[in-house]
Structure formats: structure tokens, C-alpha cells
Write a structure and sequence with these properties.
The protein is mainly beta and 123 residues long. 0% of the residues lie in helices and 50% in strands. The chain has strands at residues 3-7, 10-13, 18-25, 34-39, 46-51, 57-59, 67-72, 77-82, 91-98, 110-113, 117-122. A hairpin with a 4-residue loop joins strand 7 (67-72) and strand 8.
Length: 123
């Protein structure tokens, strides 16, 4: 059974940092792109970042320059380092594993999803 489990969310003041982790189990994803999405209350789930099997990264404009996605295939884990956080970053953050080696912003291209971790940024 494939599982993606996120951790590292919490409450942080504006300008602060958080590092989210997503540990995968049940199969390895070294040949798959991994991604992070987020969903704020009353809004659709939106793309945040993705990293390909060759470590190429791609970010949403809203987080570019403040967020870094990385992966450790030996640990079957993907990370999201978030700096200079803003109140508008408040959302549930979801990890996802793509069907493809190179990821994109399309939710439909991701086959597996975690349960999400809450990030709250206070002003």
C-alpha cells in the first residue's frame, strides 16, 4: 500500500520559515516527479512546486524565490523549505507523486497524495 505522509506544518509568524517533509512508503519514487500543492479554505487546490527525477525544479510564481523543493531518494522523501512566509501562504499543504518523470502543475498528473499538513502564518 502506497502512502505519502507529510509533516513539519505548524503556526509561524510572517517572515518566518518552515520545512515540510513527505515520506513515501509502499514503493519507491526515484523515477517519478514529486510535487507539493496547497489548499486554502474556500479555494481550489493549487500547485506550489515540483521536482523531476533528475532534480529539475519548477515553482508557482506566487512562491518563487521563497520556496525550495528537494528530494532524497535514498530516504524516499521530498522536502519543501519555505522562507519569508506570508499570511497568504496559510493552507493545507499536500505532497503528491507524479505518474511521470517530469512534473507539472496539473493535479491530474499526480497519482498518489498525502493527507496534508496545516501551515498557518500569522500577521
Amino acid at each position: 500500500q502506497v502512502q505519502l505522509v507529510e509533516s513539519g506544518g505548524g503556526l509561524v509568524q510572517a517572515g518566518g520559515s518552515l520545512r515540510l517533509s513527505c515520506a513515501a512508503s509502499g514503493r519507491t519514487f526515484g523515477s517519478n516527479a514529486m510535487g507539493w500543492f496547497r489548499q486554502a479554505p474556500g479555494k481550489e487546490r493549487e500547485f506550489v512546486a515540483t521536482i523531476s527525477w533528475k532534480y529539475t525544479t519548477y515553482y508557482a510564481d506566487s512562491v518563487k524565490g521563497r520556496v525550495t523543493i528537494s528530494r532524497d531518494n535514498a530516504k524516499n522523501t521530498v522536502y519543501l523549505q519555505m522562507n519569508s512566509l506570508k499570511p497568504e501562504d496559510t493552507a493545507v499543504y499536500y505532497c503528491a507523486a507524479s505518474n511521470f518523470a517530469v512534473g507539472n502543475a496539473d493535479r491530474g498528473s499526480y497519482a498518489y497524495w498525502g493527507q496534508g499538513t496545516q501551515v498557518t502564518v500569522s500577521s
